[in-house]
Amino acid sequence: MPSKLVELILKESKEGKLKSFPISNSLLSKNIASYALSVDKDALNKKTEHLKLQVLGHKYVDALLRKHKWFVSPSMPETFVWNILRLKKRKNLTWAISQLYILFFTRKRCVQLSLMVESWNENPLFKKRMPILKDCVQVFRKMQKGKINVSNVLLPTLFAQIDGLISDLLVSKSINWKANYVSRGKNKDGRIDVFINRKFAIRNICRDDTANELILKYFFQSSDFGKPLAKPFVFNRHKVMHGESLTYGRLENVIRAFLILDLLANIEGEGAKDKSEIDDEFLKILG
Length: 287
Description:
It is a single chain. By secondary structure, this protein is mostly helical. The chain has one domain (about 5-285). The protein has 13 helices and 2 strands; from the N terminus they run αααααααααβαααβα. The longest helix has 27 residues, at about 40-65.
């Protein structure tokens, strides 16, 4: 993305002109053209340039996050997107993006993490798991300044909850699967294949295609004991839970696990379009 465009987007966002707009909610994702036709044209024309900048900014941030194996979860504020954009000129983007996430979730005694987890109380599928998840938050908060690597302790627990919640979600919707995780055959009937291919709609602004890539290509990536992963990345459920990986204990991986849980807590329906597809269609409508 050209530097001048990035600067303009950041200027507009700072002035409060780039407000959150429902460009990726479940209704719009099903029929973006019908939604656009129902919008007041004069009001839309006045906002067109601001909306174009917002969508272009999102597309750039999506690509950046995908490259560095992150995504913005539904409970995170719109302002976080523009904070990522501000990192564009950093030399070590991988470190800078990770630090931005760590600071966001750990500052002020982890208030943002606590609020995010508390919001999951509204989801019936999470009810029986909330004592475990709240314990994880308390451990995370208390051990931030200690000598114990809290990530070594928390990640296996969070991974198990992600695993169980995906199964609970599919069962609640009477969705069947055959293989336990990702199918290695052509049928793509594994539990995670089915979860991704259903294209669940997500509440609020969510870069769901970016999240799916992290979940499918890395977190549930197929693994054979004693052999390296096809796409090397320590954030892998199988290598950790089967006791093969011993270097997974990093703070950013704990945060990634919480982000996946937040995504699962905010699923609304099925058949949604990918965020990138919605953005492209929206840009065409805006002209």
